[in-house]
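Exercise 3.2. Students should predict the tertiary structure of the chain below and write it as structure tokens, then compare their answer with the key that follows.

Predict this chain's 3D structure.
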Amino acid sequence: MAKDVKYVYGVIPSGEATSFGPIGIGDRGDEVHTVAYKHLAAVVSDCPPLDYTAMKDTDKEKMVRDLAAHQRVIEEVMEGSTTLPMKFGTMVKDKDEVEAILRRGYFSLKEALAATEGKVEVELVATWDVDSVTQEIAQEEPIARLRARIEKTKSRLRSVPDRIKVGKMVYESLGRRRENYQEEILGALTTFALDLQKNVLMDDKMVMNVAFLISKDRQEEFDDKVREVDERLGGALNFRVIGPLPAYSFSTIEVRPLTRQEIGEARGILGIDEEGSGLADIKAAYYQLAQEHHPDLKPGDEEAEERFTRIASAYQLLTSYCLGEAAAQGITAKKQAERYRCSFVPPAVNKAMLITVKRAGEVMTKSQLA
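Answer key:
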């Protein structure tokens, strides 16, 4: 039987051991607790090793149940603390690896927690009765006139081009209506938004699916404004407000190993020596190359954008690596970490991991789960 691993739900700003009870992912009722490192703590529980990528095809129901459990734990934890959610399915071997994440990601995790303190995510989903809306559109000119012509045409084959044209016109009209509604709703609500992210529309019934990052103390105002918009639209749409939630769409932690090849390629792009460089060297190399290869300076160069993106990605990767190496040595002061000279020789690189906090484009939202 495979040995249990640690499932990681998220990170909170606490250096204390805390238990949240037997609410862990899976069906065993494992205790959810914290693993602390200095002023950070990871929220974890034991679980058997699972491959959620394969589970999408073999046991989708369990994957959805576990995703719901993952989100329930995070939302319970957030009631008492600012919480950075971890990407669903993050598992590590043991407590030592949990501590390594906190240690190597110390600076980025601290900064992200500070940036989301006092803020919550609220998802707004607007839907309509697509059949009723389509019928309304069918009565509009020139669609109605074209439909009448189709009905008079005795040959179904001869009417095919007109039928295709009607379908295209209806589709375009639906799109315009959807865009108009989106513009009106966002115009009313963006005053509350510190940030927002438009999520995927899962089907034609959806008019809007947007995550808003707002201050905790403005939730009631936000809800009142949604009701006001609903009344102004005369019930044309059905609104569903989901939240407050942790900032899933804006600050989700992802952890993965860094390979020697990735680091070598990034060094090669910036021209960084293997033996050791500080953040100042990396930053200077980046600024020089960014100035030389900025797309605005190279009109007509089709590869300029891609080249500039590679330079920026290399800079971000090496910066994260060096800050992680400094934190792994116990350095918790940012200025001191920026002076630390990190090594890129194999023994150091072999233990490297990339810990990023980013917008969660691949993380399933509550509205998608529902």
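Discussion points: The CA atoms of residues 25 and 66 lie 6 Å apart. The chain has three domains: 5-117, 121-245, 258-358.
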